[in-house]
């Protein structure tokens, strides 16, 4: 079973919910007939087994339903305040389906129409729907202006799907869309424009990273760097306090030794990413953390086991171009990362390139590509969901420590 999630944002770029993406009966990019039913049933089962909060945290879960599953009691197994019932565009609407959806709506479930391209005036589920999703590839914004005006008058919540750029986000927002889905948030807004307000922080972190990569790193020198930045010292102490348990930590140097050099280097990278992304959507930081842990866990069970540390760094730094609004090569300038990491992030080649492709394919729910890449890497692809779930949980715990 594969389950991934794609964030759905509000206007302020805070996450409203996650659409759950899942594999059908075969490794496919989408649904293949009866497998849509099987896939949704598998997702619901998986959510109960692992806990809904572990995959969507405290947000709403958007789950696709076909006509077969709509006629079952499965939707009611999930709290109405957590589930958005997403009606697939392939559903044939008859009187029974319409009555069932009306029943769910009356019970308090939010109803969303997926990939809507029918007539707004005549489609029978429009009056019941709370959310209407427009795929901007299939229905570009300029082609649905009339429908948007009507929907807004009817107090419908409009969701723009497959937004790929900041410009598309702004255009949809100005038209009246309130929810937005796509990976626009993980791309640079203004390529090549340096954010000079973050230079000092970046320099401080680089001093730490360079000392950590010395032949014989010195805890004393590391402590001296940290002690000169009260903000950095506080944040590191918060992170380390969870490891120290009931032991009292009398000095920064003592605190650093609790982690060990490799783990300390990882946390310095994490804190650096957080600092650089202070004015970006929190989901971008969360995505970096998920990718970092997911890459590490996948590497551990593949032919990349020897470079699991580099794999984790690759995942963590995979969004730094968006954090700094630069192209990747410029963003990574002067950051002393291993050659494997630089090759994968800048040139999309080298030892870690396939892992990077796998992570992105899994995020986007491209299960055919996921299965193919997994096979080439000697992976048991059926175990990827557990690794992904562990990564989501680790990212949540990490962000809680850093707040």
Automatic annotation (TrEMBL):
One Pfam match, given by its short name, reads: EAL
Cite the SUPFAM superfamilies for this sequence. Answer: EAL domain-like, HD-domain/PDEase-like
Annotated EAL domain residues: 1-202
Domain called HDOD: residue spans? 198-383
InterPro entries listed in its UniProt record: dGMP_Pdiesterase_EAL/HD-GYP, EAL_dom, EAL_sf, HDOD, RNase_Y/CdgJ
PROSITE patterns linked:
EAL (PS50883), HDOD (PS51833)
Look up the domain of life of the source: Bacteria
For this entry, the protein name equals EAL and modified HD-GYP domain-containing signal transduction protein
């Amino acid at each position: 079973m594969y389950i991934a999630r794609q964030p759905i944002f509000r206007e302020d770029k805070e996450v409203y919910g996650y659409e759950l993406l899942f594999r059908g009966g075969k490794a496919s990019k989408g649904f293949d007939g009866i497998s849509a039913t099987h896939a949704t049933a598998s997702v619901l089962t998986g959510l109960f087994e692992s806990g809904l909060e572990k995959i969507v945290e405290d947000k709403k879960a958007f789950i696709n339903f076909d006509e077969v599953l709509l006629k079952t009691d499965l939707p009611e197994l999930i709290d109405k305040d957590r589930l958005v019932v997403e009606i697939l565009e392939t559903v044939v609407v008859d009187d029974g389906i319409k009555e069932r959806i009306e029943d769910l709506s009356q019970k308090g479930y939010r109803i969303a129409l997926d990939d809507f391209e029918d007539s707004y005036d005549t489609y029978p589920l429009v009056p019941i729907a709370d959310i209407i999703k427009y795929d901007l590839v299939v229905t570009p914004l300029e082609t649905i202006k009339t429908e948007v005006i009507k929907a807004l008058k009817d107090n419908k919540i409009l969701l723009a799907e497959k937004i790929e750029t900041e410009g598309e986000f702004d255009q949809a927002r100005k038209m009246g869309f309130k929810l937005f889905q796509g990976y626009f948030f993980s791309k640079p807004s203004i390529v090549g424009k340096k954010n000079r307000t973050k230079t000092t922080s970046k320099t401080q972190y680089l001093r730490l990273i360079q000392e950590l990569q010395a032949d014989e790193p010195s805890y004393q020198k590391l402590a001296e760097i940290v002690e000169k930045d009260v903000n950095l010292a506080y944040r590191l102490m918060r992170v380390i306090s969870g490891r120290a348990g009931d032991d009292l930590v009398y000095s920064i140097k003592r605190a650093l030794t609790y982690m060990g050099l490799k783990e300390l280097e990882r946390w310095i990278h994490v804190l650096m990413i957080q600092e650089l992304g202070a004015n970006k959507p929190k989901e971008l930081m969360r995505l970096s953390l998920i990718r970092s842990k997911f890459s590490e866990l996948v590497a551990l069970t593949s032919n990349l086991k020897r470079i699991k540390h580099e794999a984790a760094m690759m995942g963590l730094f995979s969004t730094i171009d968006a954090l700094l609004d630069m192209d990747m090569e410029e963003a990574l300038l002067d950051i002393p990362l291993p050659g494997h990491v630089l090759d994968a992030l800048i040139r999309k080649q080298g030892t870690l390139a396939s892992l990077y492709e796998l992570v992105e394919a899994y995020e986007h729910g491209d299960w055919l590509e996921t299965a193919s890449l997994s096979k080439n890497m000697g992976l048991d692809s059926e175990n990827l969901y557990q690794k992904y779930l562990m990564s989501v949980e680790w990212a949540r715990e990490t962000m809680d420590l850093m707040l």
